Amino acid sequence: MGFLLFIGRRVVISIPLLIAISIASFAIIVAVPGDYVDSWIGQTMAQTGQTRAELMPRADALRAELGLDQPLPVQYWIWIKNIVLSGDFGQSFAQSRPVSEVIGTRLPRSMAIAIVSLVLGQTLGVLLGIYAAVNQYRWGDTVATVVAFMGIVIPKFIIALIMLYLLAFVWHSPYLGSLYSPEFLVQESMSLAKLWDLFLHVWPILLISVWAGMAYTTRMMRGNLLDVMNAQYIETARAKGLSRRKVLFKHAVPNALHPVVMNMGGRFDYMIKGELEIAIVLGVPTLGPLILSSVAQRDMYVVSAIFLLVAVLLVVGNLLADIVLALIDPRVRRATVSGGK
User: Fold this and answer.
1) Mean pLDDT computed over every residue of the chain
2) pLDDT digits (tens, 9 = 90+) for 166-179
3) Whole-prediction pTM value?
4) Looking at the 3D structure of the chain, how many domains does it have?
5) Cβ(283)–Cβ(272) under 8 Å?
6) CATH number for the domain including 219?
7) Residue 126 has pLDDT above 90, yes or no
8) pLDDT tens digits for 2-19?
9) Residue 182 lies in a domain
């Protein structure tokens, strides 16, 4: 019962945070000079040769139709009220479709890539961190440290640009700028052949995202495990005659995992943002290119909705990290239960 109360309190605490984030994300988008109508005026002038003065009557009517003539607090209130009451994220100005449809076609792709990258990155990072700590100051530790530092200090978009050059000009890969080959576009059901074709298109994103996620976890796990291995209770376990493997995996590793597990709550948000950055460079049709085009077109409801969804994922990720930590550590679980009474 206390554990459920703990989860309930975390959910309740998250509500004001999400409200603040929604206000901030909406304010950031509308703070940019101009709106969608200004973008429409520029495009129409370039296409038709009409002057701004000639387009102003139609622009004023369009601004009133879209509700952009309302004060910003009123626009925000209408937007957030529709989300809470009916799940309506508004209308995409550029595509003349509900935002939920625009995002709905791309969000599952970004989520799947982020989840796979998170699981692989954290798992490989933990294993490599354990290996580096056990082989401290040896060649294995040196190689792991170099790989981790490169993944941390090199920006992901730089790695993506290098990968794009290799794919386009060195390997002449046909799998660029799409998720499926033409023969699989009309196939609705998923098959092994279609899944393999999908992997051939997205493996560069997975490789870069996994490397970036693995790098930080490797450094964290290595440092945590080295600290734990010098703790008094580890010396006591060794003095009792326990094998080196049992001391490592039963006593040292579980305690060294605590900061890694807590960090995973924020890593999911990081993997989503990292996927956006890489997808923009590689031109893969996920949320990344959609954000870029929506910002350019001042399609504020699309961008605000994506920011809000990423914030929700961050909150959910931290909540899941707390739950996992309580499950793997009896001390945290007992403290959680007693605190909820």
Assistant:
1) 84
2) 999 998 888 888 88
3) 0.80
4) 1
5) no
6) 1.10.3720.10
7) yes
8) 667 777 777 788 888 888
9) no
Residue whose tokens read 């914030």: 311
- Phi and psi at residue 156, to the nearest 5°: -65, -35
Q: Compute the distance between CA of residue 123 and CA of residue 228 in angstroms, rounded to an integer.
A: 19
**36 domain-assigned:** no
- Please give the single-letter amino acid code of residue 120: L
Predicted pLDDT of residue 165: 92
Domain of residue 255, residue span = 115-167+203-285
pLDDT surpassing 70 at residue 240:
yes
User: What residue has token string 């490789």?
Assistant: 207
| Alpha-carbon span 151 to 170, nearest angstrom | 23
Q: Where are the alpha helices (DSSP H) in 181-252?
A: 182-185, 192-229, 232-239, 244-246
Rounded Cα distance between 256 and 275, Å, is 28
CA-CA distances (angstroms) from residue 80 to 20, 76, 85? 12, 6, 9
Angle at 70 between CA 64 and CA 75, to 5 degrees: 115
Indicate the pairing of strand 91-92 with strand 97-98: antiparallel
